[in-house]
Amino acid sequence: MTTALRSDHGLFGPTSVTWRVHLEPVMWVAGMRALLLQSLHPRVMRGTFQNSALFDPAKAWPRFQRTVEFVGTRTFGSLAEVEAAGARVRRLHHRLRGFDPESGRRFPIDAPEGLLWVHCGEIDSYVDVARRAGIVSAAEADEYVAESVRAAEVVGLDPAVVPASRAELAEYFARMRPRLRVTDEARVAVGGLLAPPAPPPGAPAWTRAAISATATTALATLPRWARRMYGLPGLPTTDLVASALLGGLRRATDLLPDPPAPPEVREARRLVREVRAGRSV
């Protein structure tokens, strides 16, 4: 990814809510929440389980890194970089098929219903954690969801069908809930997050503990109905505790030096700080 100063800030830019949200370290919890929420769709979960290296201990870390790199490019890259990354993902998904043992049929991984579910699980997780951690106001949360429609187009979704507000997201999940449940594949996936195997060569030594702690926190931030599907309490007190924890994590990370990041993320931090200080970029 290019690092020189440029006027092309891609899909979002330094004045967007998206840049501000995705620069926050607490968003790692949101990423894990997204995985847990997305896993409740049987067909999406099976297609992912059958095709992704995320469930192979020897390949999971490199695969995870590629996913992080894609999200980083989509968020902070130039328009050309975003389109190139999106084209690679669309080509990959178009070649893949999953098998549904209940119907005995194969299905395309890039079916619009599945792509939309993955997108909504991701965006709902990011906006929920950002709101509860005190990163955005209610109005900014809606602005973030509206901005995310641009990200949905990158993976091939028609923007006309993508929720553009928190209210539309809530309506979408209400429609989808009768189709959701925990499959055996989801149990394996969630178990691997809560009690991950020893990290493969190349992964930092702290990976295992970090994944387990982040997954545990993410479970507590799921909607009550999703927690109940996983056999966990859906009590309001859990929501209060999770919100307090997210706020505390956000305040703690504010006191720490910026974590290591690629050049484009460091540049984004600088530009966002200039915008917040009232300087033009």
From TrEMBL:
InterPro entries: MPAB/Lcp_cat_dom (IPR018713). It comes from the Bacteria. Residues 19-246 form the ER-bound oxygenase mpaB/mpaB'/Rubber oxygenase catalytic domain. It holds the Pfam family MPAB_Lcp_cat. PANTHER family: BLR2777 PROTEIN (PTHR36151), ER-BOUND OXYGENASE MPAB_MPAB'_RUBBER OXYGENASE CATALYTIC DOMAIN-CONTAINING PROTEIN (PTHR36151:SF3). This is ER-bound oxygenase mpaB/mpaB'/Rubber oxygenase catalytic domain-containing protein. It comes from Pseudonocardia yuanmonensis. The lineage of its organism: Bacteria, Bacillati, Actinomycetota, Actinomycetes, Pseudonocardiales.
